[in-house]
Write a structure and sequence with these properties.
Blueprint: E1 13-17, E2 27-34, E3 42-48, E4 52-53, E5 61-62, E6 65-71, H1 72-78, E7 79-84, H2 93-104, H3 115-126
Antiparallel strand pairs: 1-2, 1-7, 2-3, 3-6, 4-5
Amino acid sequence: MSVSAAGNFQEGQVWNYQTRAGEESSRLYIVQIDPHEKLGPIYHIALDGLKLRNPHIEGGLQIDLPHLPISEAALQSSVTQLIDSGAPMPDISEGYGHWKAAFDADEGGIFTIPVAQAVEYIEKAVNQ
């Protein structure tokens, strides 16, 4: 599937996406899609194959991101090729639960920037 045909995102899909340098083997999983009346669909994705510097974990290198809420436009701008549909999905329940509580309290949002930029943002935040 080409990016131009990518408008039909579905839960259970695995995508290649425009990664950060050195993370070319990273994959994007569409784990859950929540409808939202103002924001449109909210895509809850997970990533693997990362090299995210994180001083808070053993070894200092985080290889996956278990939950990232993102807009459809940001997702559309990031994906490059559909790899699989109906694939087993990572467990996002813990991260989703924290996000949902914050979101419902108007203390959390979604990313509207490309996935690679969101990963960069998260890396900078955990290293401050």
